[in-house]
Design goal:
The protein has one helix at residues 99-102, and strands at residues 2-9, 15-20, 27-30, 43-49, 55-63, 70-79, 83-86. It has 109 residues and is mainly beta. The strands form 2 sheets. A 4-stranded antiparallel sheet has the order 3-2-5-6, with no helix packed on it. It starts with a strand and ends in a 7-residue tail after the last helix.
């Protein structure tokens, strides 16, 4: 049996990578588009194998740029038909631009 699971981005925008830990070999799904934080209409729908016809186990990874992923949860239990909001707790902090990049250049007169 398989379960259909929906993942959304809580707080800020992010990419998600979900690995089905029950499937052999593990199956990986990655959001190609940036998921909009706090928008229920921006989601990644994943179909995962189950071990009891309803419940699966996935690894959730998060990224700001879609390339460098950090593990959010190694063994997250998921249930068919549920939606899971993935928060920013494992995302690296946003890099702030140096002050020199944010100030407009001044011309000398």
């Amino acid at each position: 049996m398989v379960a259909s699971i929906k993942f959304t981005a809580a707080q800020s925008d992010k990419h998600l990578r979900i690995t089905d830990n029950v499937a052999n070999p593990p199956k990986v799904e990655t959001s190609e588009d940036l998921l909009t934080g706090g928008n229920a209409n921006s989601f990644l729908l994943v179909v995962v194998e189950t071990f009891d016809e309803k419940t699966g186990l996935v690894k959730v990874e998060v990224s700001r740029n879609g390339k460098n992923f950090a593990t959010h949860d190694k063994k997250m239990p998921v249930a068919h038909g549920n939606t899971y909001e993935i928060d920013d707790s494992k995302l690296p902090p946003l890099k702030k631009k140096p002050l020199s990049e944010t100030k407009p250049e001044q011309s000398s007169a």
